[in-house]
Amino acid sequence: ATPTAILVGTSLGAERGILIKGGDVLEQMHLLKTVVFDKTGTLTVGQPKVTDCCPWGLYQPSELLQLAASVEKGSNHPLATALVAEAQKQELPLLAGEHFHTEAGLGVVAQVIWQGSPQRVLLGNQAWLEQHQIRIPQEVEAQGEHLAQGGKTVIYLAVGSEYGGLIAVADQLRPDAAQTVQGLQEMGLEVVLLTGDRPTAARAIAQKLDIEQIYAQVSPSAKAGIVQTLQNSPTTAPVAMVGDGINDAPALAQADVSIALQSGTEIAMETASIILMASQGVAIPLHPVLEAIQLSQATFKKIR
Ligand code: ADP
Ligand code: MG
What are the pocket residues of ligand 1 if the criterion is a CB atom closer than 6 Å to any ligand atom? Predict the structure, then answer.
């Protein structure tokens, strides 16, 4: 890296809540044509709240929540935190469990003791339940679609091989998400939304932010594949990826410039070359991304 780049990178970090690991990264940023954003925990603050608890069959809403929270104990996904927090608020004790397993971008499973006997409880998106041969009733599909149209994330639960109900959660956009997206678009950059959530929920968020390019229901490895596709076209390369989760790590590793939020998982932060820093009491802002690109352009476009 040139001495200027290192100097600029360092001062930017100190002043504006962005940590750039080395001057090369800042130098690369003036060439960017595309910025890809993850949805949950990146464009949204990642503190979702439970809004709907819709059991199926004989369960009570509180039982559905209790089962779900007990399985999420083994996960540090924002959705897991939301369910555990709601169970705590309703003073529902978590059930004893073992064999906790997380499938990134799909869901979680564990064996819990329910009414005296061990049961496998699955929790996740529709595809994850279908992979396990759980049949979701037709009227439930319509209900899920309706909730997703409101931008909510829908989580489905099964006990054994039987569908047991759905829980919807709602998250808020980061306060500066719209402003940051608009700023990038005004600079002529393409903004892309990339999420493991379903298309309907993705569209609801994209509409609020004026993002046209959406890739939904994308697995962690497919996220990396989409970044690669964008890198292969001269109209969209080079590509920056902004993400927070374990499910974003492959895409971050693939991108030309990788940006992680400090609130995110360890692996995302290790992989990324830029960190958006947290400061107490406020949501991590996204606009330092915009400022770093502007600064890179101001610094390096003059040189050539
Ligand atoms: P995003 O790409 O928007 O950050 P993820 O890839 O983390 O979202 O998750 C995609 C979908 O997988 C979620 O919308 C949810 O339906 C399901 N999912 C992932 N992790 C969990 C979990 N811990 N509990 C329940 N559902 C989950
Ligand atoms: Mg995420």
Answer: 38-41, 72, 75, 77, 79-80, 105-108, 123-125, 153, 155, 195-197, 245, 247
CA-wise closest residue to 156 among 191, 121, 181: 121
Q: Where are the alpha helices (DSSP H) in 90-198?
A: 126-131, 138-149, 177-186
d(CA 97, CA 112): 4
Catalytic residues: 38
What ipTM was predicted for this assembly?
0.94
What global pTM score does this model have? Answer: 0.87
Give all domains of the chain, ordered by start, each with its CATH number. Answer: 3-45+172-300 (3.40.50.1000), 49-170 (3.40.1110.10)
Best residue among 70, 73, 153, 241 to mutate for probing ligand 1, ranked by most atoms within 8 Å of CB: 153
Residues 218-239 have pLDDT tens digits of 988 899 999 999 999 999 999 9
Only one residue has tokens 């046209």, namely: 212
Q: What is the pLDDT of residues 85-112, one digit of tens each?
A: 999 999 999 999 999 999 988 999 999 9
